[in-house]
Amino acid sequence: MAQRISRAKQSIKSSGVGFVMPAPEERSASLSAVLHVLYLIFNEGYATSAGPTHQRVDLSSEAIRLARAAHELLPDSGEVGGLLALMLLTDARRAARTGQNGEIIPLDEQDRSLWDKEAIAEGMGLVTEAMTGGTVGSYLLQAAIAAVHDEAGRAEDTDWPQIVALYSVLTRMSDNPMVALNHAVAVAMARGPAEGLALLEKLDRDPRIKEHYRLDAVRAHLLERSGKLAAALRHYEAAAEKTASIPERNYLLLKIGRLRAS
Fold first, then answer.
1. How far lies 226's CA from each of 83, 105, 188, 190, in Å?
2. Helix axes 213-225, 193-203, angle to 10 degrees
3. Amino acid 16: pLDDT
4. Cα 87 to chain center, whole Å?
């Protein structure tokens, strides 16, 4: 990677091209690429894909810092505001997401008194402002979903039908298998696990996600909620084998142990 960066620097230096704002017709594509990179940095910090820790605060904090800088430069951009709101509303739960030993605590079991209320208030304000500003994009929709979660004082108070409606719009806007997976979870929570499981069948044929551990983990969770414990156990085991994240694996192994005991 260091060699690639060095070559890129040399190419820029020898080209004689200066650092200038892109032309208006290029700016939208450039902004989209920047926001996507910030989104990926934040996601890796929020839930690391591999290694011994579940969160990398250095990455998520840096992504938020850069998103703030982008928002200061482009305060009228709904997608910039939406991305910053999404980061703030999601990161607000950080303190409640892991236990004393670094173990994962799922959303429905978190102590919501530990959530950062100032970050939630700021994120809510950004969502409200961006929603009244015109075009609604994918980051803003995801921020709105995060806002619905953060508004609920208890897990059982979550407005799942509203989340389903937001995901339905998002799935039409973005061909993203992770969005489709989250949509299936929301449908299961709102209408029952059978409907959520039915939506997973399409993802079994999607090469972008069919081998991903999260598909097995979600299917296991919905099968468990359906009372099909033997099938759930098989998919929890498959998910545990596929993930490279140690905290995720430990969480799944704990689920497996509890299911076997029952």
1. 35, 22, 10, 14
2. 160
3. 84
4. 9
Q: What is the spatial distance between Cα 249 and Cα 165, in angstroms, rounded to a whole number?
A: 32
**Average pLDDT for 88-100:** 96
Indicate the CATH number for domain 160-262: 1.25.40.10
Residue 25, pLDDT > 80, answer no
Kindly tell me the sign of the dihedral angle through the C-alpha atoms of 251, 178, 198, 167. positive
Query: Taking a C-beta distance cutoff of 8 angstroms, is the pair 112, 154 a contact?
Result: yes
Virtual CA dihedral for 182, 184, 189, 194, nearest 10 degrees?
A: -160
Domain residue ranges of the chain, discontinuous segments joined by +:
30-158, 160-262
DSSP string, 2-20: HHHHHHHHHHHHHHT----
Helices 57-73 and 78-91: crossing angle in degrees, nearest 10, is: 150
> Tokens at residue 172, please?
């039409």
CA-closest candidate to residue 190, choices 227, 156, 241? 156
DSSP state of 239: H
Q: First and final CA of the chain: distance in angstroms?
A: 48
For residue 229, what are the CA distances in angstroms to 48, 182, 224? 28, 22, 5
Residue of 101, 99, 103, 146 whose CA lies nearest to 126: 146
Whole-model pTM: value is 0.90
Q: pLDDT tens across 208-256, in order?
A: 999 999 999 999 999 999 999 999 999 999 999 999 999 999 999 999 9
pLDDT digits (tens, 9 = 90+) for 26-36: 888 889 999 99
With contact defined as beta carbons under 8 Å apart, do 201 and 172 qualify? no
SS3 of residue 221 by DSSP: helix
Question: Position of tokens 């969770």?
Answer: 221
What is the number of other CB atoms lying within 10 angstroms of the CB of residue 62?
15
